[in-house]
Amino acid sequence: MRHLDSDALSAFVAIAEIGSFTAAAQRLNKSQAAVSIAIGRLEERLGKKLFDRLPRRVALTSAGERLHHYAQRILALEDEAIASLSDATQEARVRLGMPDDYMALFGGALVDAFAPRYPLVGIDLRCGFSWQLETMVESRELDMAIITQNPADPKGEVLRSERQIWCAGPGRSPETAPVLRLALFPDGCRSKPLVLRSLDKAGRPWKIGYSSSSIQGLQLAVASGDMVTVLPESAVPADWRRLDESHGFPPVPPLALAIYTFQQSRLPVRQVTSFMRTRFSDVTPSSLQLVSRQS
């Protein structure tokens, strides 16, 4: 009888996400030899090579990429089965953090799709800058967070790449001013240096006209004044003007959005993580980067 061992699939998914047998073994609290044996048996059972060994990492083969999708689904279903048999009446809370400009992208899905599927899992949401949320995960004030990765010190599992869009309020033409008036998040926002560097590189004069730590504050300033801002594409109001190079605005590098949590998480946290991956991931399995915290 043919079957797929869940422990082997867990090892396979960990290696696929981290890109290293050694790091995957540490994540799973196993020896590297045990992980290698599990993958060897899995490859033998399937009759397919799952990983290519590269100089600095391992990468999924085409067969491995196909298996990765199914392996995640199988492990998620296993989690659901365990949850349903453990205590069908026990409620759980997941403390989740994210910058408030990501609420448009993730918040509605958590209410409309996650909550009906997992009615016993409550979400306690906290908004803040990504560096603050990382600290809160590390101090265990949060179970997990959706963050903008710091390119100099990337943390978390990359979930998706989000375009940054120059935008202005409806009926406004702030791009015609000789010196751009900007409405931006204050220092500590990881996209702000990218925005200002892009303008400086393009030789476009600017000044900060308004600063707010909340997206509502930025939206109010841009909608009522002759100012321009940069927002993640999912956070741009539908009736706002989108500005690009044809309006004299340089492109801004996209943001890498990542899930940051502990390696050994409670089942409800794993359920939220699995939901986020399934619903929002636009990153190929072989390009995922994971730098989770040890429990």
Tell me the CATH topology of the largest domain: D-Maltodextrin-Binding Protein, domain 2
Our count of helices gives 9
Under the CATH scheme, the architecture of the largest domain is: 3-Layer(aba) Sandwich
Q: Helix and strand succession?
A: HHHEEHEHEHEEEEHEHEEEH
Number of strands: 12
Please bin the fraction of helical residues. 40-55%
Output the structural class. alpha/beta
The gyration radius over C-alpha positions equals 22 Å
Can you summarize the main beta sheet?
5 strands, mixed
The overall average pLDDT, rounded, is: 86
| The CATH top-level class label of the largest domain | Alpha Beta
Number of domains: 3
Give the strand line-up of the largest sheet: 4-3-5-12-6
Q: In percent terms, what proportion of residues is strand?
A: 15-25%
Low-confidence stretches: 283-295
